[in-house]
Specification:
The chain is α/β, with parallel strands linked by helices. The protein has helices at residues 14-29, 43-50, 75-99, 113-121, 133-140, 146-155, 169-174, 212-222, 239-246, 257-262, 276-284, 298-309, 325-335, 337-346, 353-365; strands spanning 2-8, 33-39, 55-58, 105-109, 125-128, 160-163, 179-181, 199-203, 228-233, 251-254, 269-273, 289-292, 314-316.
Length: 369
Amino acid sequence: MKKVCIFISDEGFGHVVRQTAIISILLKKIKNLQITVVTNSKIYLLKEKFGNQILFDDYHNNISTIKNKDSSLNTKKTKKMFDNWKKKSENWIKRNTNKYSDIDLFISDFVPDAFRLGKILNKPCIGVAHFTWDWFYGKLYSKNDNTYKYLTELISEASKLYFPPFTPTSIIKKYKNKIKKINFILSDFKSSKITVNKKNCLIMDNGTQNLRDLIIKTIPYLNKIKDFEFIIRTDNLPDRSKKLILNSNNLIPVSGLKNTHSKILEADIIIARGGFNTISECLSLKKPSILFNEKNNPEIYENITNIKKNNYASLMNIDDWGKNFEKKIKLFYSKDYHKIKFCLKKSNFLTSGPIQIFKEINFFLKPKK
């Protein structure tokens, strides 16, 4: 029996969504394969999806950004988090070296220490991501301090790195000898388009609930926008907001992460934070979107800059929520929607990333002659 161990970053939902799609393919395609997932904050999603089909190690992988109440990234606390990660790295490596010495292949998404683990155990360790933590750190802080150098040192020890479209070009250049480009990796949801008389708009929060307060602030104004229906996830909303949604004719509640993402197929317009998972789905499914930037976050800024530059989405600011939301969405529909729809129609983003990764993993698992 071959054994694969997957280390998933405890930052947001994107890493878990990506690896869920990859695990699903591996379970279908490879017999006698034991998969262990090491993660903490979103492990419940994997347990719901796979049950006893895979093994779980509920253990935090030490990197997660810190946000302010206004949804911006707290640079001071995030810097402290990186400093603490560096201090904990040696113990993390020691713990997992002892625990996983019999693994045939490691996958990192995107846990830098895992590459050192693979090197110590002389086992392949591949990385799957759309940005690297050294790039992120260098954009926010310094490219000359020990933390940046250590991040680069660890990532350089990867056997191979796989990156989808819109990965920053500076990352591609830095790790060009290890990189292989792949297509998008999407959530494995299924749904069908529902025809409605009004424009259907899905308002999505992200994995760390950065938009929660802005959505709550906006809900009282949505029932006045008669030309649109709004789909809103209610799990994390207060009772007063849920009551407003249930008593409104044009507000549609949805619960659960998977159910929310499945609504992308039904929606005409997506409003969300500019996270890579959401962007991948909007581009692949050709859905016009309005993306919200996260102040101080270089990953989100890079995402939405690339998307806006190609006319694949529009942007919104913090002032566009609440009482100004109606003006924003009507202006978007009259000015940007059809132009974006046209550009998306001409695009051809493939979603075969999981199959590509499966082929690479299968290669690494084959006995070497």
